[in-house]
Amino acid sequence: MADFLLLEQLYKMIRDIPKPRVIFRKGIVARGFFRPYMSFSDYTKAQLFDSPERITPVTVRFSSMFGDRGTPDTVRNIKEMDAKFHTSHGNYDMMCCSLPVYFTDSVEKIEAFKAAFSKLNLFDGVNSNVFWRFIVDNPEALNCGLRFFSCKGLSDSYVYIDMFSVNTSIWENEKGEKRFVRYRWHPVSEDGSKFNADRKFIDSNTAEFLAGFDPDRGIREIYGTLTEGRFLYFELQVQMMEHNSIFLNTCGKHTLCWNEKLFPPTAIGKMRIETLEENCRESDLLSFAPGRTVEGIKLYRDKISELADHFFTIEAIERGASV
Fold first, then answer.
1. What is the pLDDT of residues 32-76, one digit of tens each?
2. Residue 112: in which H helix or E strand, if any?
3. Domains and CATH numbers, the chain
4. Non-local CB neighbours of 264 within 8 Å, separated by 6+ positions
């Protein structure tokens, strides 16, 4: 073909077609704001935590890790809640999921992990034989594997379950003092009280029934709540480890939880989600990466965290998303 103008138009058409995400393909995007309960400037220079009067706009994406856009919300899966804080110093991405641990700390085992969650397509459901072989060959994955195959791997909701950051972050204050932190989003009502805790998880029979009867139950719940003019509330809790802690050598382990008796979760603020993102293209192009931080917060640079940051950054570029 010699019609270069037509070729350019065809290229533009192909380029403008949103490319699917590698994982977290099914999701919904909403907007709201975050406000801390008090100033945490003694712990971090981050602007979004410096004053109870500070209101930071937030864009949030709820999604499921495995499967395609047609995958039912109630199948066994890991749910994700990624929040992008829009500060005057840049955007901060906080990525949290429904399990507090990950399957491995070794980048060399990522390919084997991918195979355990691949059937016909990439990340298209649990390949049971390969999955349990992966657990047997990698005992450190048992912590996450047992949680995944317990009731905590089944839920019909995105908004009634706690969401955890598996990656460790570093807070630094004006004095240069550093602390290691992990985050948790806890669903609450408007007045901060417990939020319908009985709705957290479902049994396998209910999950199987809802997969056919109401496959979009989780997404529809968010959509219905916000379109009816009601809001969603999540309290941000932080576990904090001092820089000289005797447990410092385990602070970056993705396969281990932090002991809540030694490092109790402290509530530091609340997020209110108010509206849905109506621009479908903006939702498709939205990207998150654990290394996208602001002054006063850094990502703990272990190999898995660096790999995840690189993966999500490259994946966003390939999709034509903003990074």
1. 999 999 999 999 999 999 999 999 999 999 999 988 888 899 988
2. helix 110-116
3. 28-319 (2.40.180.10)
4. 239
